[in-house]
Amino acid sequence: MVIEVKNLNFKYKQDVILNDISFELKTGEILALLGANGAGKSTLLKCINKILPLTSGMVSLNKNNLQHMSRNSIAKKISYVPQDCIGETITVFESVLLGRKPYIKWDVTDNDMEITRKVIDDLNLGKLAMRRANELSGGELQKVAIARALAQEPYLLLLDEPTSNLDPKNQIDILKLMHKSVKGKNIASIISVHDLNMALRYADKFLMLKNRKVFAYAKREEVTSDMIKAVYDIEVILTEVDGHKLIIPK
Question: 205-210 and 213-219: which strand pairing?
Answer without folding.
Answer: antiparallel
